[in-house]
Amino acid sequence: MSSKIERTDVAIVGAGFTGLSGALELKRAGIDLIVLEARDRVGGRVEAVQDGLGERIDTGGQFLCQDMPELMALAKARGKTFVETYVEGDFVTHPSMSIRQAERTYREAVAMRERMNGIEPDDAAIAGLTVAGWLERQKGTADAKSAFRSMIEGLWCLAIDKLPLWHLIDNDRRITNDVPELQYSLRETMQSLADDLADDLADRLRLNRSVTRVEHGGDNVRLHTTSGVLEARQVLVALPPATAAKLDFAPALPAKLAAALSVWESGAVIKIRVRYARPFWRERHLSGMAMWRDLPGLFVCDASRDA
């Protein structure tokens, strides 16, 4: 005996900010929809847990800035409290170097990145070349190359030998920030913002329901999930590229689209929170920021909620 097929106008795969925001726009337009989420929570790469002191802290994506106008507007509309990241004072490097040397090294690393962005993403000369391969060919001090590597790996959370050079150049050209990405965090946590959006969807949200196959046929789309089949007139796949590439599409995606999805490789972050009774570094005119040169991508910042 076949199981009952659930039906809706629009099915949304993924309950991160993209999926939740898209769902609320459709709901306001009076369109019937269902959001499918593989995890037991919403938020995607945004997540919060309770620490030993009973505080809710962000363990996933945490920071936002004015160069993210949609997210800023959403947080303001939901009444969230913005905490400005403390950046006053000098930053520390490890192994240690003088402030003048650190500034000179940083400028050289930035110049290297600007030189990289002068290359056309579709230049045949860089086809198949990784960022690591390109960096090996560059002139510059070992310190500057190390700073460049930390800069890129800290941002992408991915080793530069796994990052295609053309992909980084293309991304850098499209996304230009005028303010630091660590400008603000939310006192209530970023997860609370995702939870607010989910609350407005009520029974339209299905957690613990992973999609495995997307079938296009006739006037409908069939989504095969871990707990049955959902049929919709349209589907919105609101997943990171690397995750979307794992879905079984029938018919198969166009070759160029499939190739574009397969280029991306999700990064990984180990995030550690250390709490002190007081921010003693500020008394020493330090920002609380530290960057390791011998362990590229390792970075520390002051995430105090009293800033």
Short description:
Helices cover 32% and strands 21% of the residues. It has 307 residues and is α/β, with parallel strands linked by helices.
Would you kindly provide a written description of the structure presented here, covering whatever features stand out?
It is a single chain. This protein has 307 residues and is an alpha/beta fold. It has helices at 17-28, 69-77, 99-116, 131-136, 142-156, 165-174, 190-201, 241-244, 255-263, 280-283; strands at 6-13, 33-36, 48-50, 56-58, 82-84, 90-94, 184-186, 205-206, 211-217, 220-225, 228-237, 248-250, 286-292, 299-300. It has a seven-stranded mixed sheet, covered by helices on one side. The model has no long low-confidence stretch (mean pLDDT 91).
State the helicity in percent bands: 25-40%
* Beta-strand residue fraction: 15-25%
Across the major sheet, the strand order is 8-2-1-11-10-9-12
Biggest sheet statistics? 7 strands, mixed
